[in-house]
Amino acid sequence: MTGERGCVLIDAVVGLGDRLVTGAATPVRWTVRGDDVRQHSTDESAIDEPRARSIAELARRVEAELGGPQDIEWALVDDEVILLQARPVTALPVEPVPIPVDVPPGYWTREASHAPLPWRPFTRAWADLITAPGFRMAAELGLLLDGVAMQQIGGWEYLRIVPLGGKEPPRLPGWLVPVAFRLVPALRRRIRESVAAMRSDVPGQLVHRWSREWQPDFAARIRVLRERRLAALSDTALDGHLADVLTLAADGVDVHFRLHGALAIVLGEFAFTCRDLLGWDETRMFSLLCGTSTTSTRPARALAEVAALAGPPVRALLKQGAPADEVLAADPEFAAAVAAYLEEFGCRALTYELADPSWPGSGRPPRTRPARSSACPSCSASSGRCSGRSRRTRYGRTTSSSP
Description:
Blueprint: E1 8-12, H1 18-21, E2 28-33, E3 36-39, H2 49-66, E4 70-77, E5 80-88, E6 109-110, H3 121-127, H4 131-141, E7 147-153, E8 156-162, H5 177-183, H6 185-199, H7 202-227, H8 235-278, H9 282-287, H10 298-308, H11 312-320, H12 324-329, H13 332-345, E9 397-400
Antiparallel strand pairs: 1-2, 1-9, 2-3, 4-5, 4-9, 6-8, 7-8
Helix pairs in contact: 4-8, 5-6, 7-8, 10-13
């Protein structure tokens, strides 16, 4: 079932109901949605359209009487529909919620690497900070595009590489591309900006600013924010704290994009150098960049140091599956190391969704695939027929879920 309200599904066979139960007969399926009655087979049916309407009406009356969707069995004697049995439908999916989709102009692709699921409202507000830095990065480095735009379309995150001028250009023949670079004002201007950025080594300067300026500044600001005890803040102070967090996030996204573009150019120069001086292809060049960084492995290395402090009493309790409080009480030094580790690393998010808990958040592993309702495809995967408000006719048997 898909959870569609307002649809009654009917399966009907000629003869007794056990022919349907045992599979001796294949039912003919009907769907009734208001005044729309359809037979989904060209086979000869046990019922006709007026009888299908009568059965659907019976299903709705039973549903109204019993206070919920019902799976009923019925029989036809001449033109009279006789109710044999009714059972509540307990596994009815959540009713799909239609979402208006307003597709903006341009070519958009699903951004599933960071947003495999729709954003929650708070994360969506934060995600709106992304577009402006993408445009600043393109202008600063002289890239041949206006920027990178992100937008919610139908509840999902989409990405667009915005061409110079903002509009999708016509596809030019190869011989005309060099001419366009010389004649189109936007292309000529951006080429000049690109040459100036490369000659002044803007990408290299940005990379150096990370280690010399930005990273220490972010670390200090994060430290100040983490030391605030939120439970003790007034409403006004808490609002100010949230504003500081969002400012930090906006600054971080801006630096992220600037470094992302800069590193792409630096790695490109490195690839060309390996090719021209050493005769290496890209695969061999990238072999020099394999492995993990000291920054990304810092939490794991710190956790290994904590594990090394676990003495025999702690290890014995861990093997027994003792509760965490009991394990920590057995060794104050180990407990202090665990507390320091959680203070340093426990607040880190494990996904890009801000509503998901951090690692120690609720004492259980963070949810990676939150439940969601999907739009009714108005058909089941196997039959291609709507099965939302169904009533299956076992001789007849019918399932329904009315509004």
